[in-house]
Structures are given as structure tokens and as C-alpha cells.
Write a structure and sequence with these properties.
Helix content: 40-55%
Strand content: under 5%
Number of strands: 0
Low-confidence stretches: none
Largest sheet: none
Mean pLDDT: 79
Number of helices: 2
Distance between the termini: 49 Å
Order of helices and strands: HH
Length: about 70
């Protein structure tokens, strides 16, 4: 196996480990998602990546951020 494939596999493993760890912490009450129910991160399969993919969330704070940046 080449070094590039090994590095890619390691990076993917760390990313998935972080996603699963953050999901466990969310279930324990450490994190709380404030997104709308229609946000992609509320979907059953995608909710695992909620805390490690911090873009394109839909919540009340997103509207406030957009108004602040304008």
C-alpha cells in the first residue's frame, strides 16, 4: 500500500472517529444543535457529521449571522 493511500485512510479514520465521538457527546448532552428541523444535519444518516462539517446549517443563528454580515 502506498504512503498516500495510507495517509488518506488515516485521515478518513480520524474524521469518522471525530464524527462518532461528537455524536456520542451530543447524546450525553455536551452539545446541542440549534438548527431547524428541516436542516440536513437532522437527517438520520447525516446527523453523525453534524459537528465535523460546520457548513450549510440552517438555524436561527444563521439568519442573525447573515444580517450581521450585510
Amino acid at each position: 500500500m502506498s504512503k498516500a493511500k495510507r495517509l488518506l485512510g488515516l485521515m478518513l479514520g480520524v474524521y469518522l472517529g471525530a464524527a462518532l465521538t461528537s455524536r456520542v457527546l451530543e447524546r450525553m448532552g455536551v452539545y446541542q444543535c440549534g438548527c431547524y428541523d428541516t436542516c440536513w444535519c437532522k437527517k438520520p444518516g447525516l446527523s453523525v457529521f453534524r459537528w465535523v462539517f460546520p457548513r450549510f446549517h440552517r438555524g436561527p443563528w444563521a439568519d442573525e449571522k447573515r444580517a450581521f454580515e450585510a
